[in-house]
Amino acid sequence: MTSAAPPTALMALAISVAPARQGQRLSSRMIESFKANAGAAGLRSVIAPVRPTLKERYPLIPIERYVEWRRADGSHFDSWVRIHEYIGGEILGPAPESMTLRAPVADWEEWTEMQFPEDGEYIFPGGLAPLVVRDGIGVHVEPNVWIVHRVAD
Ligand SMILES: CC(C)(COP(=O)(O)OP(=O)(O)OC[C@H]1O[C@@H](n2cnc3c(N)ncnc32)[C@H](O)[C@@H]1OP(=O)(O)O)[C@@H](O)C(=O)NCCC(=O)NCCS
């Protein structure tokens, strides 16, 4: 029997701030809490697979390009990635195939309140990439960006 390697990182899978409380820097405090908990547990880093908030407005741009976008002042183009960087996060890289959603077209039509009359690629509200419809099945491959926060010794 092999023994498992000791853990080294805490994964921050999702952070969500209620709409009424957004803009109050609560998400930074949550990330700092993740870092404090990781440090207390003897872990070296917090890794966040980040769903870039503004990517839904640019569904045709590959995540490999989007992750490189910067504003004139050097800060990241994406508001959620920017927050991570403000508090010391470093981009590890894009994850083009973070999550695959595969479902019958009827389900997609209900979820999106759209119609998909024939096979093809469709842009839909909130989608970070197109929906690919073929033979009655819709497949959406959602990209994201992995960010690491190193925990001080
Ligand atoms: C994405 C989300 C978590 C961001 O949290 P938020 O509370 O709305 O954002 P904040 O209050 O932290 O940020 C507001 C501003 O303060 C800035 N800010 C936050 N912390 C900062 C810090 N420590 N130093 C400097 N600026 C900071 C942010 O950069 C932003 O300003 P900017 O856009 O001009 O750069 C939130 O909008 C949300 O829950 N969205 C829905 C769910 C979601 O998409 N979650 C992400 C998937 S895991």
Q: How would you portray this structure in words?
A:
The chain is α+β, with helices and mostly antiparallel strands and 153 residues long. It has one domain: Gcn5-related N-acetyltransferase (GNAT) (Aminopeptidase, 3-Layer(aba) Sandwich), CATH 3.40.630. The protein has four helices and six strands. Strands 1, 2, 3, 4, 5 and 6 form a six-stranded mixed sheet that branches. It is globular, with a radius of gyration of 18 Å. The structure holds coenzyme A (COA). Coenzyme A is lined by residues 14-17, 22-28, 51, 53, 79-80, 82-83, 86-87.
Mean of all residue-level pLDDT scores: 96
Instruction: Give the CATH H-level superfamily.
Output: Gcn5-related N-acetyltransferase (GNAT)
- Kindly provide the name of the CATH class: Alpha Beta
How many domains comprise the coordinates?
1
CATH topology: Aminopeptidase
Portion in helices = 10-25%
The tally of strands reads: 6
Order of SSEs, N→C?
EHEHHEHEEE
CATH architecture: 3-Layer(aba) Sandwich
Largest sheet data: 6 strands, mixed
Give Rg in angstroms.
18 Å
pLDDT under 50 segments (min length 5)? none
How far is the first residue's CA from the last residue's CA?
A: 33 Å
Structural class: alpha+beta
| Overall 3D shape | globular
Q: β content, as a range?
A: 25-35%
Number of helices: 4
Bound molecules: coenzyme A
